[in-house]
Design a protein that fits this description.
Largest sheet: 4 strands, mixed
Number of helices: 31
Strand content: 5-15%
Strand order of the largest sheet: 7-6-4-9
Shape: elongated
Radius of gyration: 48 Å
Helix content: 55-70%
């Protein structure tokens, strides 16, 4: 990662005096620390002295829970509902017997057939159809024809009347009443007495119809008989709905709602005993009873919260002190401090979801912290942050367990050390796999030591948290870059793409510059890798260092064919064109939203060195004409000088690659002499004074440059047929570069 050059804000400036600069600088960071410590207390408040705590089925109780008040444990809702339904089903339903029902049915039946007979004799089929419509009997044409036949109608009348006389003495229930009947017996009230009879001794409407028409072939006549019986059979057994509902309600209410009672002083859960569903119901009932008695349950405990605040503050202070001494650039940047606080906050707020869903603590998104910190500031700081966050986690009461600390630390450490600087999104699955294996190993270790949690569910939640945390961290990369001003390795990889718009323009409009850019980028990347600098940053930065030449590509020697336009210009004008490619490059890069850290390469790759070729020409002209000597400031690049190892490497690689192109007979000795002279000249001019390159770095860079240049600029064989084309003077390589 790399921080773009921005003017530090008030809280990010190095304090110049104790008051108010130092107080504001350090005080703001202490406020963030105290705010985070207090926020953790709010998120995970301490349980009171008389508390129940949070438990889940299948875990082991860490302490005894003794009832301080007597209470009753209600039955499970589903169990109570089943028992009440069973009790209601045992109630014997009461039916009122209506003795006149048979006579009423026969009388109504006789009236119906009398009307049919009369209508048939007067109007035939039409008259019968009218009677059926009036009485509500829905018959088809064949059945209407049957009733119009006096003989067949009389036989049907006899059949129905006989069935009513024979089958109804013991009683017939309505179809609806029979379908709702659940008991094996019924109570029949009538004739001044009540008797309980077997259900199968009476008939339902359906049973009556089936017996009345038993043995008859299906057809129009049988169907019509069923329709007529259904219309004119009056049920003789009518349920007493009010009495039946009252007795069923009494039976339901008679079922006790309490499963058991717990006395004051009785143990609800014993330490080291497994907590099951029965114990959870007891704990819920105990909690409800305490609240009903006005006793605070699991509410804020001032003393406990104060202790939690102290622990949180100490652990966060340890992290802050370590960052202050070992990563001072992070401590100085308030934006970076805010980003760290935000990462920690996202992690602990996610912890509320873990506790709310009552899932294993291995689901805590420690991988989000590890991956985020590693992407932004490297694996070492990520490992330290993981250690501190795991410690902060287990001092919060929902996660107080050694195994929680070890599981999270193992997974988070694996992620912090394996993520490193991945270049492709697919590589994220590599460290996800490494992290998953670490989680699996530590969870298995606890199980082999007799832990009571399930392996697969715990590992599943840990793996899900790993994947989600990784995706979240990668998704937050643009936000992190915006907050901190850091350009991460992943963003640099994207900008180090030769298919970017500016690179495509350079390849088409300034092909010579493009070729030089690619070679210089290779050289800078190799040099950076050799001394431990950021090789990706070097490649991406050198890609853009000369984009300003797009404004006037023909004025730079690598793009010239058939003449040099500077020969017709005043040296001052030529120097202005060459100098302005830096300013044009900055303008073009910012228009394309190139990260500021890459714009530094455009500004700094020439430093503030003089444009020597045109300065000498201007002096020669002034001496020849007797004019005023030229102002050296007009023949100098705008700068600044390189301020990082990477931009200094870019300056040296740019000069070495350009000079090597002009070198005839590029032997290793001549390349070594060339690179030595370039580095010596830059150092003598003070161009390397503001960057942190060491003498050892320069020695390594020179060796690597010579090796790389020797591979790309070695002497070729002069073929006889092309000797006349390849021989000649290389010319002055500085003009218009």
């Amino acid at each position: 990662m790399r921080t773009g050059r921005r003017e530090p804000g008030l809280l990010s400036r190095v304090p110049e005096k104790p008051w108010p600069d130092a107080v504001l600088h350090h005080g703001a960071r202490w406020l963030v620390l105290l705010f985070m410590a207090g926020g953790l207390v709010i998120l995970f408040p301490s349980e009171p002295g008389v508390g129940i705590g949070r438990h889940q089925a299948g875990t082991v109780a860490e302490r005894d829970i003794i009832a301080q008040v007597a209470f009753q444990v209600p039955k499970d809702t589903a169990v109570l509902r089943h028992q009440r339904d069973s009790a209601a089903a045992t109630v014997i339903p009461t039916f009122d017997f209506r003795g006149n029902a048979r006579d009423s049915s026969l009388s109504a039946l006789g009236d119906f057939f009398a009307k049919v007979d009369s209508a048939a004799s007067v109007s035939g089929v039409a008259g019968v159809d009218g009677v059926l419509s009036e009485t509500g009997v829905e018959a088809d044409p064949e059945q209407i024809d049957l009733l119009a036949d006096a003989r067949r109608a009389g036989a049907l009348h006899d059949l129905a009347a006989s069935a009513i006389r024979v089958l109804t003495p013991n009683g017939v229930m309505s179809p609806n009443a029979a379908s709702e009947l659940m008991a094996d017996s019924i109570r029949v009230v009538g004739r001044g007495a009540a008797a309980v009879v077997a259900r199968n001794s009476v008939l339902s409407g359906r049973e009556f119809y089936d017996r009345a028409l038993a043995g008859r072939e299906p057809g129009a006549e049988t169907g019509l008989a069923r329709l007529i019986l259904a219309r004119y059979l009056a049920p003789s057994l009518v349920p007493d709905s009010v009495r039946n509902e009252r007795e069923r309600a009494l039976a339901r209410n008679a079922v006790p709602i309490v499963a058991e009672g717990v006395l004051e002083g009785e143990a609800i859960v014993r330490a080291n005993d497994q907590v099951g569903r029965a114990e959870l119901r007891k704990l819920d009932a105990y909690r409800d009873q305490l609240r009903a008695d006005g006793i605070s349950v699991d509410s804020s405990n001032v003393v406990g919260d104060l202790g939690g605040f102290v622990l949180n503050t100490l652990l966060l202070a340890v992290f802050g002190v370590l960052v202050y001494f070992f990563r001072p650039e992070i401590y100085r940047s308030f934006r970076a401090v805010a980003a760290v606080a935000g990462i920690f906050a996202i992690y602990f707020v996610s912890g509320l979801l873990v506790t709310g869903l009552d899932v294993p603590s291995a689901a805590m998104p420690i991988v989000f912290v590890a991956v985020s910190m590693s992407i932004l500031w490297g694996g070492r700081l990520a490992l330290l942050a993981t250690l501190v966050v795991c410690s902060l986690t287990v001092v919060q009461e929902p996660f107080e367990a050694v195994r929680v600390f070890v599981i999270l630390l193992a997974g988070g450490s694996a992620a912090a050390l394996s993520v490193r600087a991945f270049r492709r999104l697919a590589q994220s699955w590599v460290f996800i796999s490494v992290t998953a294996v670490s989680f699996a190993a530590v969870i298995l270790g606890f199980l082999l030591r007799g832990a009571d949690f399930a392996f697969l569910p715990t590992l599943g939640w840990a793996l899900g948290s790993t994947i989600a945390g990784t995706i979240l961290a990668i998704g937050f990369v643009p936000v992190f870059e915006w907050v901190t001003g850091i350009t991460t390795e992943q963003t640099l990889v994207g900008w180090a793409d030769a298919n970017r718009p500016l690179m495509r323009r350079l390849a088409v409009e300034a092909p010579g510059t493009f070729a030089h850019t690619i070679q210089a980028a290779n050289l800078a990347e190799a040099g950076a890798g050799a001394i431990g600098a950021n090789a990706t940053l070097c490649r991406a930065g050198v890609y853009y260092h000369d984009v300003g030449k797009l404004a006037r590509p023909g004025y730079f020697i690598e793009n010239q064919q058939g003449g040099n336009p500077h020969d017709r210009l005043d040296p001052g004008e030529s120097a202005a064109i060459v100098r302005d490619h830096v300013l044009e490059g900055v303008r073009l890069a910012r228009r394309e939203r190139v990260p500021e850290v890459l714009v530094d390469f455009i500004r700094e790759h020439h430093g503030d060195q003089s444009i020597g070729f045109f300065l000498r020409r201007a002096r020669e002209q002034a001496e020849a004409t007797g004019g005023e000597p030229p102002d050296p400031a007009l023949f100098r690049y705008p700068g600044p000088r390189p301020r990082s190892r990477e931009t200094a490497i870019a300056m040296l690689a740019d000069s070495a690659e350009s000079a090597a192109r002009m070198l005839e007979n590029p032997t290793e000795e001549r390349l070594t002499e060339l690179v030595e002279e370039i580095v010596r000249t830059k150092a003598r001019q003070g161009q390397l004074d503001d960057c942190p390159l060491t003498f050892q770095d320069l020695a390594v860079l020179k060796r690597r440059f010579v090796r790389m240049l020797g591979g790309s600029h070695h002497r070729r064989v002069a073929y006889p047929e092309t000797r006349h084309l390849t021989a000649g003077d290389a010319g002055d390589g500085e003009a218009g570069r």
